[in-house]
Design brief:
A hairpin with a 3-residue loop joins strand 4 and strand 5. By secondary structure, this protein is α+β, with helices and mostly antiparallel strands. An eight-stranded antiparallel beta barrel has the order 1-2-3-4-5-6-7-10. Strands 8-9 form a two-stranded antiparallel sheet. It contains one helix and ten strands; from the N terminus they run H-E-E-E-E-E-E-E-E-E-E.
Amino acid sequence: MCDVRKLAVRLVLSGMAVGLLAGAIAPANAQTVTQTQSKKRKQESHAHHETNATRLARVARTTEETYSHRWEIFGGGGYLRFRSGEYLRRNNEISWATAANYYFTPKFAVVGNAQGSFGNAHAITNNEFGVYNPQINEYMFMGGVSYRFVAKEKFAVSAQAVAGTSWGIFSGGSKGIPATDLGLWDSGLRPAFSLAVNADYNLYPNLALRFTPTWIGTNFVGPTGSTIQNNLGFNLGILYRFGRQ
């Protein structure tokens, strides 16, 4: 009987010891797991920060490479809404356009451009010659300055102001009738000036798509003398960059 009691006491004490030991080990294991998880999260966070830093560095390198080119050459076509005579309705014209920019800094450049526009004028209604939609052409050759005020990895925005000369050919499609008899401007060379905004979408550092809304002021001569003609349009094309500043 005494042996049974001693055995029971020993079993109870052994169970209590095992319980206490398990209770001591469990918090230690939990603490170890928590520390491991915390360390893993810190490593993941550190890796994430390194990824962002790498991306920002890549963007900075690409941006610098894109806008450190010395030259930009543009070529494309577009549309011009042109008034072909002092008392005539505006007509639609299609255009070709080209431009060259030389950059002194990543923002400031000198620019030279050329444009040709072609369409059919709305001549005087019921005129005695029976010519109502003669073909007309205008060519502009201008130079000026450009300033880039937005320069991002994928897009850029710049503004330009240019001035020069315009060559109007208003008698070429009038079947030998003087253009002024049809209400058109007098053919010849006259001053011209233009304001435009260039929006570039970069495909590569040296290649972009360019969209250019444009205002062109011409100074052709009509029945009452020379006036300022306000013409709106746009050009769209490919921009190629090369050379280094």
